[in-house]
Amino acid sequence: MAELQQFPVMGVPVHLSTDYLDWLVQQAQAGRGAQVVTLNAEMTMQAEQNPELAQIIRQAELVVPDGAGVVLYLRLQGRRIQRCPGIELAKALLHQAALRGEAWPVFFYGGAPGVTEQAGDRLRQELPGLAIAGASHGFLSAEEQEALAQTLQAQQPKIILVGLGVPRQEFWIQAHRHLCPDALWIGVGGSFDIWSGTKARAPQWLCKYHLEWAYRLYQEPWRWRRMGALPKFAWRALVYRLFPRHTVGQSTP
Description:
Elements (H helix, E strand, L loop, with lengths): L4 E5 L2 E5 L3 H10 L4 E6 L1 H9 L1 H9 L2 E4 L2 H9 L9 H15 L5 E5 L4 H12 L5 E5 L5 H14 L3 E5 L4 H9 L7 E4 L3 H6 L7 H5 L3 H8 L4 H4 L1 H14 L11
Parallel strand pairs: 3-4, 3-8, 5-6, 5-7, 7-8
Antiparallel strand pairs: 1-2
C-alpha cells in the first residue's frame, strides 16, 4: 500500500487522499490497526495549546480533513482537497463491515446512557449484515472501565468507534489501542447522537456550504465558547499563509 502523503496544518499533519475509505478497507483487510483522527479547526487550536494532543495527532496513522476550516487552510496553501466529514467516513466503513458480517465485528463506545445502544439498533436495521460485538455509553465507573477493557481484549473487534468528544476520545483511544492492535479506532464525536435519532444532522444544503457548525451552534447554544476557536483559526490560517512554518509532515511536490 502506498504511503499517504502529509501536509502540515499549524503544526499537525493532515493526510492527503482522494479515497480515505479505500485506505481504511485495505488496512482492515491486511490486519493492520490504525487510529483515525478527524481534524477540524477547533481540534487544531486545541493541539496548539496541548502538546500531548498534538503528539497523538502526529502519531495517528490517518488524519482526515473533517472541518471546512482545515480544507480552506489547505486550499490557501495550494492543496485542493475535499472535506471528509468523520461521521460520513465512519458510516461508509460500517457499510463495508456489513458486507463482511461476522468477519468484521464492530464495537461502539461513548455517548450518553442508552444513546449508543439505540444507535446500534438503528444501524442494524439499516445495515442487516452489521455484526455489532458490543456497545457501551461513555459514563462508566472505574470498575466498568476495567470490564470494558477486558471485553475488548477478549472480542478483538475489527472496528472500534469512540464518541467521547475531543480531546477525550483521542486520549482514550491512545491509552487503549494496545488491547486491540489490529483494529481501526476512530473518534466519532457526537455521531452516536445522530445515528440514534437523538439529534438531527444539519440539512444537506448547510453541509454543502460548510455551515454545519452554525446548525450545531443552533442545536447546542452552549457551544458558543468553543466556537470562538473558529475566528482564531481563520486569523492563524492567514498568518501561516503569509509566513509559512512547515514544521510537521511533508508537502507534496
